[in-house]
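Re-run requested by the PI after the first attempt was lost when the workstation crashed. Everything re-entered from the original request form. Ligand of interest: manganese (II) ion.
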Amino acid sequence: MRLCRFDDNRLGVVRGDVLHDVSAVLEALPAWRYPLPDHDPLIAALPDLRPRIEALADAAPALPLAGRRLLPPVASPGKIIAAPVNYRLHHDEALADQGIHHGTNILPIDKAGLFLKANSSLAGASEPVTLRFPEARNDHEIELVAVIGRRADRVSRAAALDHVAGYCIGLDMTVRGTEERSMRKSCDGYSVLGPCMVTADEIPDPSTLEMELRVNGELRQKARTADLLRDVAALIERASSFYTLMPGDLLFTGTPEGVGPVRPGDVMRAAISGIGAMEIIVC
Ligand code: MN
């Protein structure tokens, strides 16, 4: 199943090039009451709600997907986790390019571990990326994103994928510089998530996907998730050894080689097999 959020916080099921409005299912979620939950309530309830969502989709008219305003498929993640240098060739290019490393220490992922991006950086596929510091180098980083489906506290690698609700395409937009990653990658709109969330049953093995990113039609990044140094399961094992993962938490799994700058007016097209594609305007 492909879930999207669109227009004015509507929930949709995408089937081919149409979508079905299933927003009525949101009435089943608990009413908001302080304190707010530390996870995404829809993702947490998805296993229970899924039969009703499918039934609503069957009954709802088909709406054209084209022209919809796409919001982040996960509305309220508790945290956005990201993997640095998780492809060997990206590690090599980061070490070789002063414009990427800025004299900072580029550690391999097993030494660097993971970092966090501010939740306020989350944006959907229809929102332009507004460069926060246009005078600096702002890079695109296409990444497979795993959406955590259920609470994961110190889970083993073998059990890790049972804790995934689904997958999205992510853009880990990055200001190059000397600051901490958590600052440079947390500008408003610098965590793009879309176009929809494909539930994990449709992607039983996330290490078999192909991805590419083009800027104004020119191929910049092309890779396979088989080349991840630490795959999705290993990243969940590592992250959950430090902190509990909650439903709706996002795990950006790292970008392959080919990162490069974008400028106002550019159009990025990001695609991952089994998920789809999205076009993002830079301004
Ligand atoms: Mn990244």
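Saved to the shared folder this time. The domain at 80-281 is CATH 3.90.850.10 (Fumarylacetoacetate hydrolase; domain 2).
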